[in-house]
Amino acid sequence: MSLSIGIVGLPNVGKSTLFNALTKNNVLAANYPFATIEPNVGVVGVPDDRLPKLAKIYGSEKILPAALSFVDIAGIVKGASEGAGLGNKFLANIRETDAICQVIRVFNDGDVVHVDGKIDPASDMETINTELALADLQTLEKALPRIEKEARVNKERQSVLDAMKAAEAHLQSGKPLSSSKIDLPELKELHLLTAKPFLYVFNVDAAELGDEELKKKLAALVAPAEAIFLDAKTESELVELSDEDALELLQSIGLTEPGLATLARVGFKTLGLQTYLTAGPKETRAWTIHNGDTAPMAAGVIHTDFQKGFIKAEIVSFDDLLEAGSVADAKSKGKVRMEGKDYVMADGDVVEFRFNV
Ligand SMILES: Nc1nc2c(ncn2[C@@H]2O[C@H](COP(=O)(O)OP(=O)(O)OP(=O)(O)O)[C@@H](O)[C@H]2O)c(=O)[nH]1
Ligand SMILES: [Mg+2]
């Protein structure tokens, strides 16, 4: 399973620059060579320091990181819901994504036109969020007559209708659905955009990446959503460099990891995901599960038969395994546990499932 994140923003804010850097990145795209589903959909691996260490312990031939997909669409402008700019028809391309990443321009560059003529992150964000809310209103208004009809003959549809009307009122008050208490599962079938988890990427000039005051101000604009600061232009240059040169460039602008790595990690967190690990001579692999998933659910991610025939899971936490140096040593130290079907997985569990088929 690879969950997906849709990239939105005004035109010329650096969405495609960021997207191209993401999908060209050798580390992030390891083993997911820019899986071209469509030209604007890219699958990237989530960077994870634990994987090479685990691969060394097991002598694994290859490493497969967890994956995230990103979907790039054309920029939207004020009035897009009424057809301004390219309109909002491209939003359909991100209806089925699991989260939204809004890119906001902070960088100054006289050669790159800003559609509103000035750099104003707060106003840009407002514009985009308004257009997304209007798109959701359109979706609701289009679906309402149909659901009303269904509710007349089928009582079970009444709860959907109620949720839709509440959502409509909430959006009309100018707020995103993610801030509402409406029972969102009822609305799932409509794929409403503002009901999805959001994260924000501020595309900042490299020279300003160290400006803590500025970052604090911008982060406050979007809190409690996560804010990521990066320079899309630098990110696109980084992916062309050798590891050594990339590290040097990063350090020269005061960063410890590429912004893309931060984005993949924060994206993962925003989606409420975590990873568990499997390892053997063939491969070391990170598997994606939701926070709170039990051992059989985790097994089901590998194969549905693993879930159906689940008996137990042999588990050692990554840190314990690394400290012991081998599974045998971890076992002799009593660090390897047998867990049953009620066990709730922890991030970094190294697992071997026992199952019947
Ligand atoms: N100086 C600077 N220029 C950037 C940066 N990111 C993007 N650009 C430039 O801005 C222009 C537009 O970038 P894109 O990535 O195509 O913008 P976009 O958001 O995808 O735009 P649309 O697809 O039109 O919505 C290009 O000329 C980029 O080189 C940045 O971080 N700094
Ligand atoms: Mg673009």
Automatic annotation (TrEMBL):
Pfam families: MMR_HSR1, YchF-GTPase_C
Positions in coiled-coil regions: none
HAMAP family reported for this sequence: YchF_OLA1_ATPase
Family: Belongs to the TRAFAC class OBG-HflX-like GTPase superfamily. OBG GTPase family. YchF/OLA1 subfamily.
PROSITE patterns: G_OBG (PS51710)
Statement: the UniProt record of this protein carries the keyword Magnesium: yes
Function (record text): ATPase that binds to both the 70S ribosome and the 50S ribosomal subunit in a nucleotide-independent manner.
Annotated ATP binding sites: 12-17
InterPro entries from the UniProt entry: ATPase_YchF/OLA1, Beta-grasp_dom_sf, G_OBG, GTP-bd, P-loop_NTPase, TGS-like, TGS-like_dom_sf, YchF_C
Domain OBG-type G span(s) in chain numbering: 3-250
GO cellular component assignments: cytoplasm
The protein's name in its UniProt record: Ribosome-binding ATPase YchF
GO molecular-function terms, A-Z: ATP binding; ATP hydrolysis activity; GTP binding; metal ion binding; ribosomal large subunit binding
Swiss-Prot/TrEMBL keywords: ATP-binding, Magnesium, Metal-binding, Nucleotide-binding
The organism of origin for this protein: Candidatus Planktophila limnetica
Lineage of origin: Bacteria, Bacillati, Actinomycetota, Actinomycetes, Candidatus Nanopelagicales
